Amino acid sequence: MSQGEPNSSPAQFDVFVTYQSILQNEEISTPLAAILTLTQLIEKSSAGTMFELVQALNDGAEILKQRTPNPISLNAGCELFIAFVTLFPHDSDSFSDLKTELVKQGRNYATEALTYRDKIAALALGFIEDDSVILTHSYSRVVMKTLLRAHERKRISVYVTEARPRGLGLRTYDELTAVGIPCTVVLDSAVSYVMDKVDLVLVGSEAVVESGGLINAVGSNQIAIIAKAANKPFYALAESYKFHRLFPLSQYDLPTHNPNVLSFPPASVSTSLPTKGAVIGSGLQKITPAEGSRSMTQEQVARNPNVDYTRPDLISLVFSDVGSLTPEGVSQYLVGMFAG
Amino acid sequence: MGTEGHSVANQRVVENLASKLRRRQVVGSRETALETVLVLRQVVSKARFSNIDQLVEVIRSVGRKLVDAQPKEHTVGNTVRKVLHHIREEYHTATQGTVLASSSKNTLSISRFVLQGQPRKQNALLKTSADAKGTLKENDPDDPDSFARGLKPVLMEAIQDVLDELETVYDNVSKNAKDHIHSDEIILTIGKSATVEAFLKSAAHYRKFTVIVAETAPSYTGHDMAQSLSSAGISTVLVPDSSIYALMSRVNKVILGAHAILANGGMFAITGSLLAASAARAHSTPVVVCTGQFKLTPQWNLYHEYGALDFADPSSVLGFEEGDLVDKVDVVNPYYDYVRPEFVDAFITNDGDHPPSSVYRLMKEAYDDEDHEL
């Protein structure tokens, strides 16, 4: 009867719009927003059986996935919630009671999960020595929290990568200098130059996968490789809702990889000639920040990945709200959750 | 609460051990662990408590006192944690059906769901505590001691388990020695670790092999080790520490003892171990560590600086007879090396062989998270 669920629900309840509006809250990360969206979906859903409900949730998750350019961490949240719903014991009197219970659980979790960053910061604090020099990559809320927390007790200084093309490292720089933490932005290409001065590397995460590897803003992998070569610890900070059941064997197994990324454009004069005149002549260069400085065109940026995969053997530890884990520990959690 | 009456007696045994630890009259990881269990047994047998939290607090305060007395003897804290873990387990088995069942049913939440991946010992041997069921009542106002009376027999049993584990540790570590050492192999070891000694001697029943013992300056415990091994009929070569690297190319395996194993898989071991381990790494020689699981210490060794180590008496490095020199130089004699997890290939324990990367899991199984800080 409610086979039309996936078609009819967007009319009354648009998952994507809800998801977007939840994400407006700075504190809520994508997996949590996904969980909250699915929670609302349950509330609005007219499903009368478990099968229909799970079906509706899967459809909702599918819509979210298709409409987001980088669905990795969103997927982690959706999968966690759907697996939870399927395993939740049916001891309510009626199905609608069960739904209310599930909604309550989802909300509770979201509130609880907001405290996870503090937990992680407290955990990571023990690994930051007085007078440490820390290298971080791009912008991560949990890393920020950790650094701010460390600043209260210890003297730390921070190098942050610029993290092109989005330049989020500058945001980290602004927020850190605002509270008086000595901070310097380094070029993404200067990581190996700076590594000898660094005591430890702290990065956030998009997801931590079943191999124990890390998916994070592009550039994390090269930082990890350089850190390993210089024998510096590389720590990833990840809330447990970012544990994702995925087993990439290479960069190109990530769901964000598509044929366009790293493709070679058909050779044409306008794009292949790297002279300044040609670029301007092609009319593609819209955003020239300073005269004379050269930056990539939108098209060129689009041929680049957003996230990359860091192998588990490069990661010293993963700090999460469930404790400091070795990369292997993460896979154990994932197996326990989804296969147990 | 009502513990004042008996606290005097408890205090005395605790103080006694604490001062022995402080004065270094009890040394060595197994010795200190054994003494700690014995003290805890006395404390528990005399403690008065009417609920589990009071008992846990009593044990913790004793633990804190002992750990503070000698923080470098990590096994003291480990033993306290282990006892606490066993006690909680017994308590849960004993009260199962009364406290737990009512609460566990509707507490499945998403965060609980995530915790399903948490490492836990599955084979919790459901012991014969059925008789205790039903009679246990916490915070009984009429008879505050009834809880303690009901629980104490099982608690004693739990502590006995910890004691038994410590007493059989060498046998259990060396149980599979013959599978790790092959005929005609050349083994290198350093220092005198009772565990390694038992391990090699046990293997010697089945195989002929040669052991190179580094003399382990400045304590020269290698001398005793060499003597003990050769008297057991093992072909033994005693060498100075400085030749470890040169000999490494002929060595098939390095076997080390440990003082404490940390959560990251690194360990504290007698000085010279790091030298041996890094020489082994340069020659791709496997490094195995023989150890009892009571040495697992739930700390991620954060700062492995020189100063984090234990320092021994410098007179064995530079004696006072060298009067002219003594006031011109600083003499340090660190007792332990920190060996990073990358240098260790396997830990042979009394409960299976494990790579350094799964040490943290053993720790989660052995101790409760809330006890990491006593």
Automatic annotation (TrEMBL), chain A:
Q: Name one GO molecular function term.
A: translation initiation factor activity
Q: Which UniProt keywords apply?
A: Cytoplasm, Initiation factor, Protein biosynthesis
Compartments annotated for it: namely: Cytoplasm, Cytosol
GO cellular component terms, semicolon-separated: cytosol; eukaryotic translation initiation factor 2B complex
Q: Which family does it belong to?
A: Belongs to the eIF-2B alpha/beta/delta subunits family.
Subunit and interaction comment: Component of the translation initiation factor 2B (eIF2B) complex which is a heterodecamer of two sets of five different subunits: alpha, beta, gamma, delta and epsilon. Subunits alpha, beta and delta comprise a regulatory subcomplex and subunits epsilon and gamma comprise a catalytic subcomplex. Within the complex, the hexameric regulatory complex resides at the center, with the two heterodimeric catalytic subcomplexes bound on opposite sides.
| Name of the protein | Translation initiation factor eIF2B subunit alpha
Give the species this sequence originates from: Serpula lacrymans var. lacrymans (strain S7.3)
Which classification does the entry list for the species?
Eukaryota, Fungi, Dikarya, Basidiomycota, Agaricomycotina
From TrEMBL, chain B:
Specify whether Ligase is a keyword of the entry: no
- Translocase keyword on record: no
- Domain of life where this protein originates: Eukaryota
Q: Which GO terms describe its molecular function?
A: guanyl-nucleotide exchange factor activity; translation initiation factor activity
A cellular component annotation (GO) from this entry = eukaryotic translation initiation factor 2B complex
Q: Which UniProt keywords apply?
A: Cytoplasm, Initiation factor, Protein biosynthesis
Q: How does it assemble?
A: Component of the translation initiation factor 2B (eIF2B) complex which is a heterodecamer of two sets of five different subunits: alpha, beta, gamma, delta and epsilon. Subunits alpha, beta and delta comprise a regulatory subcomplex and subunits epsilon and gamma comprise a catalytic subcomplex. Within the complex, the hexameric regulatory complex resides at the center, with the two heterodimeric catalytic subcomplexes bound on opposite sides.
Regarding protein family, the annotation reads: Belongs to the eIF-2B alpha/beta/delta subunits family.
Per its record, how is this protein called by name?
Translation initiation factor eIF2B subunit beta
Organism per entry? Serpula lacrymans var. lacrymans (strain S7.3) (Dry rot fungus)
Q: What is the lineage of its organism?
A: Eukaryota, Fungi, Dikarya, Basidiomycota, Agaricomycotina
